[in-house]
Design a protein that fits this description.
The protein is α/β, with parallel strands linked by helices. Helices cover about 45% and strands about 15% of the residues. The chain has 19 helices and 11 strands. The strands form 2 sheets. Strands 1-10-9-8-11-3-2 form a 7-stranded mixed β-sheet, sandwiched between helices. Strands 6-5-4-7 form a 4-stranded parallel β-sheet, with helices on both faces. α7 packs parallel to α8 and α13 crosses α14. The chain starts with a helix and ends with a helix.
């Protein structure tokens, strides 16, 4: 049932910077939008991206030997959390149904964050487009050729630019520099020092702004537009980024099947993903919906200090929604999620698909970070820890409980469910920085 009165109630809670749960009143059964959404991003588009990543696998393996176990395919593990599950149950005073896994994108090879999916994909595609256009490569070639001096020298005439709060910059910077491109990363004030240092060490030009993410993106876009040989990775609009993320879904299905888990309405999948501008969670949710349909329930999680994706969808203002217009500051410790306005492309794609959203206080991110480290010795960054608020509130918040009733998620079905916490970043965090996180109490 559409419940728009509740929608405005949630918006009031957001303006008061209170933790809340929003159930999406615009969500439709997947069959109703399957064909329409196909017009924008089709299964064939996603398959095309899968094939492109396979073509580049020999190149990735050559440049990043740590991926050789997977033959140059950058993919993360699915790890069951048993100790953390018990500790979370104590912490949030409720039982967490089903099996709980963490999708370890926090430990993706090369860049240590979910940005290894969309970011790397988009730059590879751009490099391939240029090389094809100039007759330097053929789709049937071995793409190890991209590591040769000839193509590197050719690509060094071109520039790649991006605006970032940190992780996207790391991913675009590393892959672009590896291919030979000139790179300029436009960093917002939220970006952590260690991320900028790491990029500069790799010879990447980092421009810093004393302003927020939207400003850094606008600067990058404007500079790039002036140079015909420059390509801008546009996190606020990019369809290629979105498709790169969507590739995760089929691979996850295979991992679940290897673990003997076949998703269906009797064994549903519940997924929690931290959201910034929306590309990563949106692309992954979209891919999952195409693979699992109504058997997957996707929830995004954002900081109470920057719930821009939620506002973009709930108000249907899309890219025009800005947290500042709701009296929300946008300055959160979750640097990866500090985007004051969402991607309008993603809010539109998600309007009829995402199940809902949870918001979380910054202070809790560090509590969850400690609990996870003590329970499982897993190190993820604060932004990633937002997911734990999702899984706890799913059983404690009244609106989420009603969502379960309305969607056939009875106790029995939920006990059979697979819940996935999507860890989005962390493995590159330096030891001393992680130590500070462990000791941060807000
Ligand atoms: C980028 C990022 C996200 C969210 O991705 P968006 O595409 O900005 O929504 C979440 N967590 C981490 C650690 C990130 O780097």
């Amino acid at each position: 049932m559409m419940n728009f009165e509740e929608n405005s109630c949630v918006i009031r809670e957001l303006s008061a910077c209170k933790e809340t749960c929003w159930i999406n009143p615009y969500k439709l059964p997947f069959d109703m939008i399957k064909s329409v959404s196909e017009l924008v991003v089709s299964d064939a588009d996603i398959e095309d991206a899968e094939a492109r990543l396979l073509r580049f696998a020999p190149f990735i393996q050559k440049c990043f030997p740590e991926t050789s176990g997977e033959q140059g395919v950058i993919e993360s593990k699915l790890r069951e959390l048993s100790v953390m599950k018990e500790n979370l149950e104590k912490e949030c005073g409720c039982s967490i149904p089903g099996k709980v896994f963490m999708k370890m994108d926090s430990h993706l090879a090369v860049v240590g964050s979910i940005k290894a999916r969309g970011g790397i994909y988009e730059v590879l595609k751009h490099a391939e487009d240029l090389a094809l256009k100039h007759g330097l490569i053929d789709e049937s070639d071995n793409y190890e050729k991209f590591a040769d001096e000839k193509i590197r020298k050719f690509l060094s005439e071109y520039t790649v630019q991006v605006g970032s709060t940190g992780n996207l910059g790391l991913s675009i910077g590393i892959i672009s520099a590896t291919l030979g491109f000139k790179v300029k990363i436009h960093m917002s004030a939220d970006a952590k020092q260690w991320k900028k240092d790491m990029l500069r060490e790799k010879g990447v030009e980092v421009l810093e702004y004393a302003d927020d993410y939207s400003y850094a993106v606008a600067q990058g876009r404007a500079q790039s537009d002036k140079d015909p040989k420059s390509y801008f990775v546009d996190d606020e609009k990019s369809v290629d980024l979105f498709i790169g993320y969507a590739v995760a879904a089929k691979r996850l299905k295979e991992q679940l099947e290897e673990a003997g888990l076949k998703i269906s309405s009797e064994k549903p999948l519940v997924v929690y993903i931290p959201a910034g501008v929306g590309g990563a969670p949106g692309g992954i949710c979209y891919g999952l919906k195409r693979v699992f349909g109504d058997a997957v329930h996707c929830f995004f999680v954002e900081p109470v200090l920057c719930p821009s994706l939620l506002l973009g969808i709930a108000t249907q203002k899309h890219e025009k929604a800005n947290v500042h217009d709701f009296g929300i500051c946008g300055n959160t410790e979750a640097d990866g999620l500090a985007c004051a306005s969402p991607s309008g492309f993603v809010t539109r794609m998600m309007t009829n698909l995402v199940s809902g959203e949870f918001t979380v206080d910054d202070a809790k991110l560090y509590d969850y970070l400690r609990l996870l480290y003590e329970s499982e010795r897993i190190r993820i960054e604060p932004s990633s820890c937002a997911v734990f608020e999702g899984i706890c509130s799913f059983r404690t918040h009244n609106r989420a409980r009603r969502y379960c009733v309305d969607n056939g998620l009875t106790e029995n079905v939920l006990n059979n469910a697979v819940q996935i916490l999507w860890a989005t970043g962390g493995s590159l965090v330096p030891d001393d920085v992680f130590e500070t996180y462990l000791n941060t109490y807000l």
